[in-house]
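Tutorial, part two.
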Amino acid sequence: MFDAVCYVFLLFIIYSFVGYIVEIINCSFNSKKLVLNRGFFLGPYLPIYGVSCILMGSFIIRYKSDLLTVFVMSAFVCSTVEYITSYVLEKIFKARWWDYSDRKFNLEGRVCLGNAFLFGVGGVIFTYVLNPFVVSMLDKLPILVLRIVSITLMVIFLVDVIITITTLYQVKVSTIKFKSRDVTAELTKLIREELTKKRDIKTNFFVRHMLNAFPWIKSNDYNSPLSKLKRYSAKNKKK
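Running the prediction step on this input gives:
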């Protein structure tokens, strides 16, 4: 059982990293410049891709003989994961991390037909090329090496998750605390300290990372710390 967990986690990390690379290439192409800072977490991985690939490997692989079914199911599974992720993040942190409202055939701006098509293509590549290759490589690893690598990456990932959630929770708590009154001056001071203070390098680095990774992030509350952080960061860049 433990070895199975280690195996699945390695697959999750590998596909999360592959998704990170795909996002870098896609964003760099769209921005016409190299974009390296991507993702919700600090590390070079996007769990949304890892989860999607694990689900495809578990359920869609059985339909491997039917390419069209693989395409359609991949588009559906990945779009569902993307929609749920967007919804949960917005409900927890009061912010829209990505928005496809300007694209045709979108659903609440969380998913869109264009992305679904790309997910379908990616699912086909995953099913017939990527997954067989990755699985064959992992199967060649000695069980001890697999355990060591998996546990090491798991510890790193969990630390990253703790740092990320803790920092974002602090922003959320600030939003709740100041929600019922006008605290523009207080928030401006708070944000200035958050971006410039030296004693909390972790939070300072994370805030900048999040704003760089999601430059189009939208907050549902104009007076939320996240909105203030974005506006203050933009003002500093102009200066």
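DSSP finds eight helices and four strands in the chain. In part three we will examine how such features are distributed along the chain.
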